[in-house]
Amino acid sequence: MSATEINQPTLTRRPKRADARRNYDKLIAAGREAFTEKDSSASLEEIARRAGVGIGTLYRHFPTRTDLIEAVYVEEVQALCRSADDLRDAPPWDALVGWLHRFIGYVATKHALAEELFAVADRDSEVFMSCRVAFYTAGEPLLRRAQEAGAVRPDVSIDDVVKMVGGIAKIQGADAVTVERILSVALDGLRYHEL
């Protein structure tokens, strides 16, 4: 399985027909928007309206609210994984830092989805476990390459880095500028320095 291929239930797989794929993408975008708004409890009818499709179209793609939430989550993880692929040709340190800044954006979106997401699904479900493996699989080569280039300390793992960046992204009350500044300070701690 590649970093962007996440094992997901049949119900959340992207459709093959062009018109169905367009409707699916509209519903994902509308769901992402609705689920990431502060204190949003948008109904499925509201999400269908935002997407410009009928409620029957929504239910054909996502029979339950949980199915839609999981699909939005999976799409966010796949975008983060694809961004690691996009950075493959950048210098090792720049690629890792670029991906970690994108990871901050992912965590911000995931954090906004968290209340909706974890209210209806098990954190240890197959979908969430597959997503976790996917982004670790996407980030690990970037970290290893930066370590092999001598740009990053050799004693850290992708798990350490993901936990560090995830914690920074979840700082309560911090605006985006503050989060980015704190991330930059933390990344300086990842750099390899000879004693």
**From the 3D coordinates, which CATH architecture of the largest domain would you assign?**
Orthogonal Bundle
Shape: elongated
Indicate the radius of gyration in whole angstroms: 18 Å
Query: How many E strands?
Result: 0
Mean pLDDT rating:
83
CATH homologous superfamily heading of the largest domain: Tetracycline Repressor, domain 2
Strand content: under 5%
Low-confidence stretches: 8-12
CATH topology of the largest domain: Tetracycline Repressor, domain 2
Task: Report, as a whole number of angstroms, the end-to-end distance.
Answer: 40 Å
What about the largest sheet? none
Helix content: 55-70%
Number of helices: 8
Describe the overall structure.
The structure is a single chain. The chain is mainly α and 195 residues long. It has 2 domains: 12-63, Arc Repressor Mutant, subunit A, CATH 1.10.10.60; 68-195, Orthogonal Bundle (Tetracycline Repressor, domain 2), CATH 1.10.357. It contains 8 helices and no strands. The chain is elongated. The N and C termini lie far apart (40 Å). Mean pLDDT is 83; it is low at 8-12.
Summarize the structure.
It is built from eight helices and no strands. The chain is mostly helical.
